[in-house]
Design a protein that fits this description.
It is a single chain. It is built from nine helices and 17 strands. It has 393 residues and is an alpha+beta fold. The chain folds into two domains: 229 residues, FAD/NAD(P)-binding domain; 159 residues, D-Amino Acid Oxidase, Chain A, domain 2 (2-Layer Sandwich), CATH 3.30.9.10. The strands form three sheets. Strands 3, 4, 5, 6, 11, 12, 13, 14 and 15 form a nine-stranded mixed β-sheet that branches. The protein has a six-stranded mixed β-sheet with strand order 7-2-1-10-9-8. Strands 16-17 form a two-stranded antiparallel ribbon. The relative contact order is 0.19.
Length: 393
């Protein structure tokens, strides 16, 4: 498409030109982590953010168990970053377990295979009460086993994003909040971005480094630079309950519990209990993604509420009288990750930004600065296979 001319002059006044070393568009966990690491490299980055995306409303959990060892490595390194952040300031970090139920032989085998590179234990249904929750429904015969994976974690998303931004600001970066990217083009080695600031003033940024970390808006701005990403947003719904007593074993919070059956239009139902409040927070993944693509986030479908209620009450019958305090939705960006410093892309994290994003940002900046990165990083380039997770998405 022809590059539309964005009218930004008011009464003939041209926007103010600001020259910067690095400009990041999109201040979710990915963009904020890129901001931090670029600032630590002395690049004095500017981060522009508009609105509150999926990073602020995710369900606050991370795991290292994937069916690809490379993704497990990224997640484990990411976990170390969370531990370091907690030493700097309280982000409500806590080590937790993930419990994935095996509803059939295929899932059982995939879980068994993942044990080779994760700290995990397979348990039989007879152990569900003493290993998962004393309230677990022992009459349930849906599962043949469950895998308990250790070294998983929980933290409060907003606190994490705020802290990593603050580290970047302390190292010379600038955050422009409520600042909207209107246009982006490239002239030679220079990117020219037109933005509208909080006070409605237009600014024209000139930067050698530009990173698109725009989540559901990423494709629109990649196209302005002539880049075809093939990414698209998929609506995912989530819920939170009122405060509850701790439902895990020995008075700890309920671990992240996951059912990966394809059932009534969904392909996974999962949730965990937050240590701070005792609320259960969780979500369900739609099985037929194109149906949910780009749907209005405000409509929380009846099916979603019914399925999460059914699955959670089947697990823990005591929950039958517990209402939802809130339901909401956010976008997963599919179908694969594109983490490509040459193209200025940090997109397509498929709802796994909290689990993988900070370490990927660190690798991105290392690559940009000419430092060594693992071989698998090249698979995340535009046109690469994106380290695609199929079994434990």
């Amino acid at each position: 498409s022809a590059h539309e001319k964005i009218i930004t002059s008011i009464n003939g006044k041209k926007p103010k030109v600001v020259k910067v070393k690095a400009l990041i568009a999109g201040g979710g966990i990915g963009g904020s982590a890129l901001f931090r690491y670029l600032a630590e490299e002395g690049q004095k980055p500017v981060l522009i953010n508009y609105g509150r995306g999926a990073s602020w409303r995710n369900i606050a959990g991370g795991r290292p168990n994937f069916s690809l060892p490379e993704l497990s490595d990224i997640a484990n390194q990411n976990l170390e970053i969370f531990k370091e952040l907690q030493k700097v300031k309280n982000i409500d970090y806590r080590s937790i377990n993930y419990v994935t139920f095996a509803h059939d032989n295929t899932m059982y085998k995939a879980l068994e295979e993942s044990m080779k590179w994760s700290d995990a234990e397979m348990i039989k249904p007879v152990d569900f009460r003493n290993k998962i929750s004393p309230y677990f429904n022992m009459k349930l015969d849906t599962y043949q086993a469950a895998l308990i994976t250790k070294n998983c974690w929980q933290a409060t998303p907003g606190r994490v994003v705020d802290l990593i931004r603050q580290i970047g600001i302390n190292k010379g970066g600038v955050v422009q909040e409520d600042c909207k990217l209107l246009d982006i083009k490239k002239e030679g080695n220079k990117y020219i971005a037109i933005v509208q600031k909080h006070n409605k003033e237009f600014i024209e940024y000139h930067s050698e480094i530009f990173i698109n970390a725009l989540g559901s808006k990423a494709d629109e701005f990649a196209q302005k630079l002539g880049i075809e990403t093939g990414i698209y947003p998929v609506k995912h719904q989530a819920f939170i309950t009122r405060r509850l007593p701790m439902l895990g074993i020995k008075g700890i919070p309920l671990p992240m519990v996951i059912d990966r059956r394809k059932y009534k239009g969904f392909s996974a139902v999962y949730g965990q209990q937050l240590v701070e409040t005792g609320q259960i927070i969780g979500c369900a993944s739609p099985a037929i993604e194109p149906l949910e693509t780009g749907k209005n986030q405000k409509i929380n479908s009846k099916d979603f509420l019914e399925i999460v209620s059914e699955v959670f009450v089947n697990w823990l019958p005591e929950l039958s009288s517990v209402g939802f305090q809130a339901v909401w939705a956010g976008y997963y960006i599919e179908p694969k990750m594109i983490i490509d410093p040459e193209q200025g892309l940090f997109v397509g994290l498929r709802g796994q930004g909290f689990m993988l994003g900070q370490y990927l940002a660190k690798l991105y900046v290392n690559k940009l600065m000419g430092k060594p990165v693992p071989d698998y990083f090249n698979r995340l380039r535009l046109g690469g296979d994106g380290l695609l997770e199929k079994a434990f998405k």
